[in-house]
Please model this.
Amino acid sequence: MTITHEHSACILALDTCTESCSAALQYQGQIYTELADAPREHSQRLLPMVDSVLKQAGISLDKVAAIAYGRGPGSFTGIRICTSMTQGLALGLDLPVIGISTLAAMAQMAISEHQAEQVLCAIDARMGEVYWGQFVAVDGIATLVGKEVVSAPANVQLQLDTQAPIVACGTGFDAYPDLLALGKGILALDAVKYPDARAMLILAEEGIKAGLTTSVDELEPVYLRDTVTWKKLPGRE
Model:
């Protein structure tokens, strides 16, 4: 499903895929945000956050052109909450949606706010594994190098230029500090531990320009592990 793109299109972004919970709204060149480190409270926190950013902008949901949602990887429960909430919000107004990688959102924050050129993102996946991805800045946009992967930390393999600085983002580096030894120039960016819906807005706008929005029925969470299946709300085919 496509939408007409305008500069600074009105986009609502939601993320609950990690311990952090966030919502952000882009409207008429302004960005409104809510962010909380609230593990186990995402289902209670997210809708009030959405209400808050809409009220800050002085608009209702029917002014939103598209909803960007954190599609994972991350906490299975968190991904389910984010996709379910997105589905519920988008259904009534038949809003198009676009899934944004949590790893890409972290990389974008490092690029946009900390001038990173190369980013290695890793989220603690429990069970002795990490979700990880490598990104480079292309015209200021986080661009994936290779694939997003879940693996043991020992199997993380750099494809980035190890002669240039590499910024490390995410909880995977706290859980497995040895990851920082993969390259001489890897520096942990403590300011970016989790994805933030604010950074998702930039990626969503690029995705809208590329025609990557879908209908809510085509919403696709990304778990990376194959043991989890997504169930749509009752009554949706």
Remarks:
- The beta strands are 11-15, 20-27, 30-37, 66-72, 97-101, 118-124, 130-138, 141-151, 166-169, 186-188.
- The helical segments are 42-57, 76-93, 102-114, 172-175, 197-209.
